[in-house]
Amino acid sequence: MGISETAKAHFFEGYSCAQSVLLTLAPHIGLSEQTALLLASPFGGGMGRMRQVCGTVSAMYMALGLREGYTGATDATGKEALYQRVQRLAEEFQAENGSILCRDLLASPGKPAPDSKTTSGHDPRCGEYVRRATALILRELEIPDE
User: Fold this and answer.
1) Which residues, in sequence order, are CB contacts of 129 under 8 Å at separation 6+?
2) Please, what is the end-to-end C-alpha distance for the chain in angstroms?
């Protein structure tokens, strides 16, 4: 099973979308599993179920920052380079899925009804968003999805 499929499996075990992505990436970005789970815990359901930015997208950004972010308060070049990458990832995720907002993703036509839940209580549509976000950030960080 590849890394992105492992992330999807974590989601169906009951972890939030954000936790599933960051937990799976933890060994590749220098985080312990516990730290990854704690850090990502508020971002599920579009940030605490507020259906804002999808937790998978937030987790992509956390992974990018942890692995290749900037730390200097006056590092304008590092900040700009990172923000360009964040924007590109958002554009790619949106192009493929229609939005980066949880509320829009869960309102997409032609998908299962919002009241269709898995045994973990999660919306089954989100498993694919977890898989795809993980695949995107793996590619961005040049980590093979194997």
Assistant:
1) 17, 54, 56, 97, 105
2) 7
Residue 92, φ and ψ in degrees, nearest 5: -65, -45
Please answer whether residues 143 and 3 qualify as being in contact, where contact means their C-beta atoms are separated by less than 8 angstroms. Answer: yes
Please check whether residue 137 is in contact with residue 88, taking contact to mean a CB–CB distance below 8 angstroms: no
**Of 3, 39, 34, 13, which Cα lies nearest the Cα of 137?**
3
Q: At what angle do helices 17-29 and 125-140 cross, to 10 degrees?
A: 20
- Is the Cβ–Cβ distance between 54 and 94 less than 8 Å? no
Cα distance between residue 24 and residue 114, in whole Å: 26
Which pTM value belongs to this model? 0.91
Task: Note the Cα 128 to chain centre separation in Å.
Answer: 11
Residue in the block written with tokens 């089954």 = 124
| Residue 64 structure tokens | 């990018």
pLDDT tens figures, 100-141: 999 999 986 554 444 445 555 678 899 999 999 999 999 999
Q: Is the dihedral of CA 52, 119, 95, 24 positive or negative?
A: positive
With beta carbons less than 8 A apart as the criterion, state whether 141 and 63 touch: yes
Q: How far apart are CA 33 and CA 10, in angstroms?
A: 12
